[in-house]
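In the current project phase, our protein records have gained a structure token line. A sample record follows, to show the layout:
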Amino acid sequence: MYVVTGATGNTGHVVANRLLDQGKKVRVIGRNRERLQPFVARGAEAFVADLSDQAAVKQAFAGADAVYARRNCGSAGARRSNARRYTQQHWCGQGIRHRTGSGTA
């Protein structure tokens, strides 16, 4: 399964749609269920979470083979830093073989 954070954002939606076009199993993560519905209509699994929530990130990444994670997810300051740290912590040690992302550190 492919997990895409920020699926409703500028690059995340491109990644999610490309994977869905290829018939891949995709879990899209976002803070708003309504905004994830276009992906669900195409066969994706929606996961509503704030990436600054460590437990949610761990659950969202469970079972993933690959993760696309924006590095500047969340709002400003500490929340962004926590989101980046939590995504990095949880794709390590969960058997996730591939990870990629974009954004600023």
The chain is about 40% helix and 20% strand.
